[in-house]
TrEMBL record:
Belongs to the acetyltransferase Eis family. Keywords: Acyltransferase, Transferase. Gene3D superfamilies: 3.40.630.30, SCP2 sterol-binding domain (3.30.1050.10). The active site is at residues 123, 406. This is GNAT family N-acetyltransferase. The keyword Acyltransferase applies. Acetyl-CoA binds at residues 82-84, 90-95, 118-119. Homohexamer; trimer of dimers. The keyword Acyltransferase applies. Residues 1-193 form the N-acetyltransferase domain.
Length: 406
């Protein structure tokens, strides 16, 4: 078997092989693009072929920026378009592609890789761990009243400004600008490169599927939030995403869709853990949580570089013994945090925690507490208090959340 990068000339073979792996047929192009895979870059895609030259597997990687705790932007490879023909599964094709891809990412100087896992049992063995989580919140329309904030409480106060309803095709530049401001402040969020918007790739509101967009503008008329939505049968208003730079703007947009006529329920597709919206409902039980699931998975390719890159909010020292069975690597590192910055170097000191690189990926953005993985039997704490210190060190300033699909 050979694994090689694709070229512009054989990118069509890559696309056809990818669709065949999932038993699907390629969509018919629409004016201005709009194909979910159209933002892939051939030079970052891999094609696996047999000795006879038959294509049997694919893997791609988008160039993204990932927002780390502390508002730090870091390059991250977004792995996607991974598939193996049903006739060649369980023959080591996927493992070979993943090994080839990780080596290539390291050669590019990248230290983080992320993906959305089609199945939760696949990518842990390649060193990826779930790092952000999301849920669907469905609110019954007749129970959708929001409570006003208590007197003297600034949080939850109505946002000054206005809301304008537009069609998605009319406001691409506004959406791009507002999303970019939002993702720079939200840990776990990914960039949406200009290429995505230009090619209308991905899912709504980027993709050309018909959507209404309610754009919120502040008192000066500057866009600072939006909600993308459509009415679906039966009488359900489905929200793709709510993007807001402030909680008050999110509340204003939520109030807007919850007040929509001629629907019996409103479904918010992506609500981050611990979001206050459910607590703002006058009837707490009016909000039904479902599809509480993982979203973004993280893989560290260079442990010291990755840990030194993010922001930190508690001072302390921790010795991490990290095993990477897929790459056949093992390292012990002294993590020292002072004044929001970390230094991470190899050490011979006795470990505080022993863990797999996939579990370190889950901890990395602060969305999973180390003590949870200790209790689950994933991470071993070697001394009393180690898990408590790790919880304090790895926490994030905001709960990490990712909306972007890729």
């Amino acid at each position: 078997m050979e694994i090689r990068s694709t070229t512009d000339e054989d990118f069509g073979v890559f696309v056809d092989t990818l669709h065949a792996a999932f038993g699907r047929f390629a969509e018919t192009p629409v004016d201005g693009g709009g194909l979910w895979w159209s933002a892939l870059e051939p030079e970052r895609c891999l094609l696996a072929t047999t000795a006879e030259g038959k294509p049997v597997g694919t893997a791609g990687a988008y160039p993204f920026e990932l927002t780390l705790p502390g508002g730090i932007l870091a390059p991250a490879a977004g792995v996607s378009a991974v598939g193996v023909l049903p006739s060649h599964r369980r023959r080591g094709v996927l493992t070979a592609m993943m090994r080839h891809q990780l080596a290539g990412l390291r050669d590019r100087g990248e230290f983080l890789s992320v993906l959305l896992a089609s199945e939760a049992t696949i990518y842990g063995r390649f060193g990826y761990g779930p790092a952000t989580y999301t849920a669907r919140l469905t609110v019954a329309r007749h129970q959708a009243a929001l409570v006003a904030p208590r007197a003297g409480v600034a949080a939850g106060a109505p946002a000054a400004g206005s809301i304008e309803v537009l069609r998605g095709a009319e406001c691409g530049e506004v959406l791009e600008e507002v999303y970019d401001r939002y993702r720079r402040a939200q840990p776990g969020a990914l960039s949406r490169p200009r290429r995505w918007w230009a090619l209308r790739a991905g899912q709504p509101p980027i993709a050309p599927a018909p959507r209404y967009v309610a754009v919120h503008r502040d008192a000066d008329g500057v866009p600072d939030g939006y909600v993308s939505y459509a009415i679906a049968e039966p009488d359900t208003l489905r929200v793709d995403e709510v993007i807001a730079t402030e909680d008050a703007v999110f509340t204003a947009l939520a109030r807007f869709v919850l007040g929509h006529d001629l629907v019996s329920r409103v479904e918010f597709k992506h609500v981050p853990p611990g979001h206050p919206l459910r607590w703002q409902l006058a009837d707490f039980r009016a909000g039904e949580v479902s599809r509480d699931t993982d979203w973004l998975w993280v893989r560290l390719l260079d442990v010291p570089r990755a840990l030194s890159a993010r922001g930190w909010f508690t001072d302390g020292e921790l010795v991490l013994d990290v095993d990477d069975p897929f790459l056949g690597e093992h390292g012990r590192y002294l993590l020292t945090v002072r004044d929001g910055k970390a230094d991470c170097v190899p050490t011979d000191r006795e470990p505080d925690l022993s863990l797999d690189v996939r579990d370190l990926g889950s901890l990395y953005l602060g969305g999973t507490a180390p003590s949870t993985l200790v209790r689950a039997g994933h991470v071993r704490a070697h001394r009393p208090g180690a898990a408590t210190l790790a919880d304090a060190l790895f926490r994030s300033d905001l709960a990490p959340h990712c909306l972007h699909w890729f």
